[in-house]
UniProtKB/TrEMBL annotation:
PANTHER family: BLUE COPPER PROTEIN (PTHR33021), OS06G0218600 PROTEIN (PTHR33021:SF193). Signal peptide: none annotated. InterPro entries: BlueCu_1_BS, Cupredoxin, Phytocyanin-like, Phytocyanin_dom. GO terms for cellular component: plasma membrane. SUPFAM superfamilies: Cupredoxins. GO terms for molecular function: electron transfer activity; metal ion binding. It comes from Eutrema salsugineum (Saltwater cress). This is Phytocyanin domain-containing protein. Residues 1-66 form the Phytocyanin domain. Keywords: Copper, Metal-binding. Pfam families: Cu_bind_like.
Length: 129
């Protein structure tokens, strides 16, 4: 995430995300350049921890999914896909590449870039309104 002064990126629980509840962040950063590795599949919730910002729309829900696909050789491999973002879907990235085994961490660099782009666009749009 890239953002200006006066904002934070807080990873929060689903209930805190839905209610824009501040103060219970799983992690929080206000450096202006926050990198969060999404190492697990499933939903991840982010809000701006400044009072009034989340309720004003400065929040983001990302769902990381991994699906199975058959390879040309007949065996099964796992293909990492980019997440569905609240309000829309992001198309798959690198759909033909195999993901690491279940015991290793999934690298999601394209995902991080997409998340950053979405947050910057959201923050910019809110700053203009």
């Amino acid at each position: 995430f890239y953002y200006g002064a006066g904002h934070t990126v807080d990873e929060v629980s689903e209930s805190d995300y839905k209610g824009c509840k501040l103060g219970n962040a799983i992690s929080s950063d206000s450096s202006g350049t926050t990198t969060i590795a999404l190492k697990t599949s499933g939903p991840h919730y982010f809000i701006c921890g400044i009072p009034g910002h989340c309720t004003g729309g400065m929040k983001l829900s990302v769902t990381v999914s991994v699906s199975s696909a058959s390879s040309a050789g007949g065996g099964d491999d796992t293909t990492a896909k980019t997440p569905a973002v609240e309000g829309g879907k992001i198309p798959a990235v690198e759909a033909g590449k195999s993901a690491p085994s279940a015991s290793s961490t999934v690298a999601l660099k394209p995902l991080e870039a997409l998340v950053v782009t979405c947050v910057v666009a959201l923050l910019y749009a809110l700053a203009l309104s």
